[in-house]
Amino acid sequence: MSGPDPRFADDAVNLEVLRERSFNLRWATLPADVIPLTAADIDFPVAQEIREAVKAWIDRGYFSYGPAEGLPEFRAAAATMLRTRKGLASASAAQVLATNSAAAALETAARFMLAPGDEAIISDPVDFLFQRSVQEAGGTAVRWACDPATGAVDFEQLARLITPRTRMIGLCNPLNPVGKVWTTPELEQLATIAEQHDLWILSDEIWSDIVYGDARHVSIASDHFGVGGRTVTVTGLSKTFGLAGLRIGLLHASDEAVVEGLLEASGARSTANGAATISQAAAVAAWEQGWDWAEGFLHHLHAQREFAVRRLREIPGVELRAPDGCYVLFPSIRQTGRSSEWIAEHLLEHHRVAVVPGAARWFGPGAEGHIRISFATSRAVLEEGLSRVAAGLQALA
């Protein structure tokens, strides 16, 4: 497509609808004069192909129970996506389970892998859902540091963190909120340690389509690393396709006995849990027809990232690593001498822009001294939001 993509133009963002439907610390939960650069959700309407698939599903007139493991067409489309886009050459429909969100998939995997009292090593910082999932399973989360300024990790530290109670390493690739895309040598070291200590790997790859520049997402479940049998992969459709409200994700494991254990842990057989069939229909449409939209969105994000990094670096004292993946920024605000919670409240109350504080409750103790900013919006919204962030931080100089 030549010229600006109208699907991601300023006027493509419908604030009237967003203020009715966009919750989770965003447009519908904040006063009308506040710009939310908070939850990692998309401000643009979803692809037309997905909307048409949902309408077609509705027009058939039935909303019956689906199979606990997911619709056959969902599992088949997911397996094709994993083979063609994630490098899992032997992925099959039988290795896939539909879940009601990637978040639910994380909890299911943790319940399968952990018993009460077990330990799981997770990144610091990382999205709070990792710690929550471990705790929901009765386990203890042990933090492995990642430097937000560089993305560096220490594998000697990882080895030291392992105890007789360790059962799992949690991998978020790309890593939210740091924006780190794990390199092949890093994944090789992680795989070796997992093999040496007979540990599960829980790989959250929900951000795997959102990578920039020379960065390349590589799945640790691919054959190269030799740990597919001990890896459970989680992904979903919220970050790439904007389907957060449809609550749809998946679990993948190469060992079908593991798939059976995950299904039992999910509660889907009892109908107390499980993915809505209409959401699965939307997912199939996304994977089979939505990649042109997703690639246009990624092109827009490239430009947003470059603009936002440049704008934030103009603020005196702000330090920022340009993310290799994700559509969030994680600038340091240590120069203010204030906590991240204080800064977020200051920006909201006095400058009418909402950001996520780098607080332990959201990302772990390693996030303090930072704020997280989402840029999955229009250029006009981002420009105004970052101008307010700049004014708020410069007022403290």
Automatic annotation (TrEMBL):
Aminotransferase class I/classII large domain residues: 33-388
SUPFAM superfamilies found in the cross-reference section: PLP-dependent transferases
This protein's UniProt keywords: Aminotransferase, Pyridoxal phosphate, Transferase
EC number: 2.6.1.-
Keyword presence, Transferase: yes
Enzyme class: transferase
InterPro entries: Aminotransferase_I/II_large (IPR004839), AspAT/PAT-like (IPR050596), NHTrfase_class1_PyrdxlP-BS (IPR004838), PyrdxlP-dep_Trfase (IPR015424), PyrdxlP-dep_Trfase_major (IPR015421), PyrdxlP-dep_Trfase_small (IPR015422)
Family listed: Belongs to the class-I pyridoxal-phosphate-dependent aminotransferase family.
Molecular function, one GO term: pyridoxal phosphate binding
Any one GO biological process: amino acid metabolic process
Co-factor(s): pyridoxal 5'-phosphate
Protein name from the UniProt record: Aminotransferase
